[in-house]
Amino acid sequence: MVLARWTWAWLLCGLGLLGAPAAATQCTRVVFSANPNYPPYHWAEGERIVGASVALTGRILDELGVRWEARFVGPWLRVLKSAEYGEIDLVVSLKPTPEREVYLDFTRSPAFPNPMAVFTTRERPIRFDGPEDLVGRRGGRTVGDRFGDAFDRFAERHLKLEDADSLEVNFNKLLAGRIDYLVTGLYTGRASLLRAGLAERIAPLPRPVNEGFIHHGFSRRSPCAALAAAVDARLAAAQRSGLAAQLLEEALQQWQRSGARKDPP
Amino acid sequence: MSRQGPSMPRPSKPRIRGRLAIRQALIAALIGLALGLAFSALQVWRDYQEAEAGEQREIQQLLAVMREPAAQAGYDLNKQAASVVVQGALSFSPVREARLTNDFGETLAQGRNDHLPDDTGAWWARFEEPTHEYRLPLHAGPAGQRVGELRVVTTRGPRVEHFLQQVRRDIGLSVLGSLIVALTLGVWFYSTLTRPLLAVARRIRNGPADLQADTPRAESLRADEIGEIAAAFERYEEEARERTRSIEASTVALADSELRHRRIIETAGEGVWQVDQQGLTTLANEAMARMLGTTVAQLRGQSLFMYVDESSRQAAEQWFHDPRESHGEPREFRFVRADGRELWTDVSTCAIVDAHGRQTGILAMVTNATERRRRDDQLRATNAQLRAMVVDLEHHKRDMAQISELNELLQSARSEGEAYEVIRAVGTRLFEGSSGGLSIATVGEEMSCVAQWGTPAWMPERFDRAHCWAIRRGGTHLQSSAHGVQCSHLPTQELGALQCTPLYVEGRLLGVLHVAAGALAPSGANLLDGALQQRVEIFGEVIKLGLSNLRLRESLREQALRDALTGLPNRRVFDEALPRELARCARSGQPLTVAIIDVDRFKHFNDTYGHDVGDRVLCAVAATLQGSIRSGDLACRYGGDEFVCLLNGATAAEARARFMHVLAQARTSADLGDAVLAERVSFTVGLAGAPEAGTESAALLRAADAALYAAKARGGDSVEVAPAQRPASHAAPAAATLRA
User: Fold this and answer.
1) pTM exceeds 0.90 for this model
2) Which residues pair with B146 in a beta bridge?
3) Which of A47, A72, A77 sits opposite B77 (nearest CB)?
């Protein structure tokens, strides 16, 4: 009996869905999220995600005439999991990996450049022309960070990279001299430095470790995945027009301002 | 004690002193044991509840501690942190499994603790659930959203271990408590129940030291049920003593009573007879023996039914043995005394039953009813006679009515012919079923039958009175085949009993009444019964009286209307007849003639030959006149020597011719005077015819008388016709005198 009742219920639901297929399958509103702590690309401010990614994506979606919401859903892993289960439609500005490809449809065009850079103290700069320059030096990185297959393989064989829980810890270690350099994202590192007020003491080396890019990934369970092509085209245009880089810079400023508001000296 | 019946003493079992105390001790121990078990069970149950609640409490505490880190790990989807939480949970003793899942249903971390103590193996442990599961929903994030769940599963091993430890500790306390309770109960039982009961038992066993002494009774002053029992025992003991005394007194009274009743039975006037179920005598008193003409000693052992008359023996046996019969009502039986004489008795019985209600015999009260029965027989006979008398009286009354009717009818009869018809009719009714008749004496010796009734009609029309024995005997004559002599005038066929009653009036035979009994006669009877005889006699008497009365009346009438000397109607008759006949003739237009006749020289005859001869002359003239007139005419003596004749339908001329003829005849015949006288007797006739000579009686008579005088004047012995009154009449000169 229970089975029968549920069968009927499912049938009714199915009929309801068939009766309004457009409403169910059409993307009328894009909810997207991102790592809540990845400035200047994006970071959490209350219930919202702000940053360069949000500015760029919002602009694109506005141009496409799609309503959108940049929602804070939790820590980064929770954001990914939400996209995996279709609870959000889009994860902006993240690195495509084979595991993520399973549940995310990445745009071909990158949203932003995300180069990895080596940071050192201004007091003890090192010369960096290639990874080989780092051999024999103590390095640091944040747990889970990846820097491209080539560098990662090299680092695994030849480099001594200490994992720390956060970028701040690595900055402290760097300042304390426990490590000689730190490998992390150029923009994120800069943002952390700005927020920590260490921009005067620690600075990235001019040559990046690699030229990484980050893309938008639509949840494969979202009806808005159909927007991927349009968004991709707009991203390419933004890339070409330098809009992305400009927005990054603006975001850094915004990040710094928000830090000043939040943590008055 | 009370169970030992007085008739069958039972061998008493060996008594064990203090049985009650042992029993009470056992009861106390059992109650203690039961209480101990109950307490222990309660305690075990509490321990079990405690073990359950303890585990639950501890797990809740654990989960409270784990809530924050687990929620954080779930929020962050941090498997390491989740693993730490899971390991922390597993480190807690009863937890066998722990798992942390996120809100997407994925397991972040899970673990299992295999080092927990195993089940104790106790059989009852199977009734305990092997695992308990606890779930803690996790909420985190700024909105407090649900981020996962921590599930912890505990196993029963540690719980059971903990429970067993508790039980081991508590069970000792329970046993101790039970012992204390049992001891307390034992002491309480002994002091409140056993000791008083033992005292009561001792009192019952040993009895009071002194029956008369007013010693205080054991335990009877107590306020509880034992006190009531003791008091009741004392009361019953007292009652038993009273009852014993009462029974002894009753026994003496009973013996006196029995003696008194025996005396009553022995001296009773009525017979008392007690028999067993077979009818054999078990008790009989002197009166009974006297009634049967035997002795009490001989009666004893003999069957009652032996003395019952054979004809009613079977009925008596049935009556005595059938319990449905109503023995309260006395019933009559015929006994046969020892000397063979009959003895009528009224017997009433009652059943004698034993203590179980079974009938063991019958007690009969016998009353001698012989004398009463004899009186009853007499009474019945008298009653029958009275009934017969009443019937006779009724018959007599009916007969008297008939007789009375006969009498009245006879008194009203105007002739003997009517009287005979009345006698026949009444005789038919009065002697219904019989036959008979009345013969009347006629002239001479002959008897003539005038009335006859019944069948067959056997009365002869006439018979000679010399043939009748009744007439000859001058009284009632009875005749039948076995009595008397049959009269020769009667038919020879058998008539049965016959009664001939001669009816005499003043010595003269009036007639003879014959009545043959016929069907009325009782079979074989040789005579008529008394009632019939009486009826015949009364009938005869009434007939005698009626007939003689009738004849007397006829005689008187004759005397009033006829002349005694000549036998002719007298002047009164003529005076009545004349106007009547005149009127008749006037109506019919017939002629009528009146003749006045006067004897010539009658004074001469009287004076010469005496009155006797004169009378004879008158008689001769009367006879001549009577013989000369027709049957419808009337001849009367008018007085003295005058006669008148009324001639109907004859004119004066015709009448003259006829008288002329008579006178002529008288001259030639010797009838008128010559036979007795030396000279001839003649007479003169005066005639007056109506309507010529007159239409009225007086006128007519005057005319006739005038004519007579005229004839007399001419010397008599002639006929003179009165002239017609009217001048036109031609009869006036017709007056002529004829002379011989």
Assistant:
1) no
2) B139
3) A77
